[in-house]
Amino acid sequence: MKIGQLAKRTGLTAHTIRYYERIGLLPYADRDQSGQRDYDQSILTWIEFLGHLKATGMPIREMLHYAALREQGPATEAGRRELLEQHRERVRAQLAELSACLLVLDTKIAGYAGTSKRMKEYDAALPERRKQPTAIKRAGSRW
């Protein structure tokens, strides 16, 4: 498939695909007779995997390290697994932090919901609050 087709299927721009290829994140594509890049279907799986790594916050230098290990073949599987296990632990820590933040947000939102309920109760008592005060200020007097 041509670079434009790959861009449409992956959501990446052609510029990003060329950049990833240039830095070694993507393998160099075969070229057709006219010299245009011609990707096979297997690149889609790799780009999807890279997308997951990126979405989970893996730095590009680690993605590059993983890609370099991948290029070296099966002998590097233990190293790739270790790299992914370390990243998984960071993702789990981020999830725990986000869960704690979500709890704070939920508590704050619930507090505002409580405020809304209290305001409705306060507003319902409005006629009672409008009664005349016990002491009336006289004209010209000082308080």
Provide tags for this entry:
mainly alpha; two-stranded antiparallel sheet; 143 residues; 2 strands; 3% strand; 6 helices
Beta-strand content estimate: under 5%
Counted by DSSP, the helix tally is 6
Q: How is the quaternary structure best described?
A: single chain
What would you report as the Rg, rounded to the nearest angstrom? 31 Å
Provide the helix percentage.
55-70%
Q: What best-fitting shape do the alpha-carbon axes yield? A: elongated
Q: What class, by secondary structure content?
A: mainly alpha
How far do the termini sit from each other?
A: 87 Å
Strand numbers in spatial order across the main sheet: 1-2
Could you give the count of β-strands?
Answer: 2
Low-confidence stretches: none
Give the averaged pLDDT, no decimals: 88
- Main sheet summary: 2 strands, antiparallel
Write the layout of secondary structure elements.
Layout: H1 3-10, H2 14-23, E1 30-31, E2 37-38, H3 42-55, H4 60-71, H5 77-124, H6 126-129
Antiparallel strand pairs: 1-2
What does this molecule look like?
The protein is mostly helical and about 140 residues long. The protein is built from six helices and two strands; from the N terminus they run ααββαααα. It has helices spanning about 5-10, 15-25, 40-55, 60-70, 75-125, 125-130; strands at about 30, 35-40. The protein has a two-stranded antiparallel ribbon with strand order 1-2. The longest helix is centred in the last third of the chain and has 48 residues, at about 75-125. The radius of gyration is 31 Å and the shape is elongated. The chain starts with a helix and ends in a 14-residue tail after the last helix. The mean pLDDT is about 90.
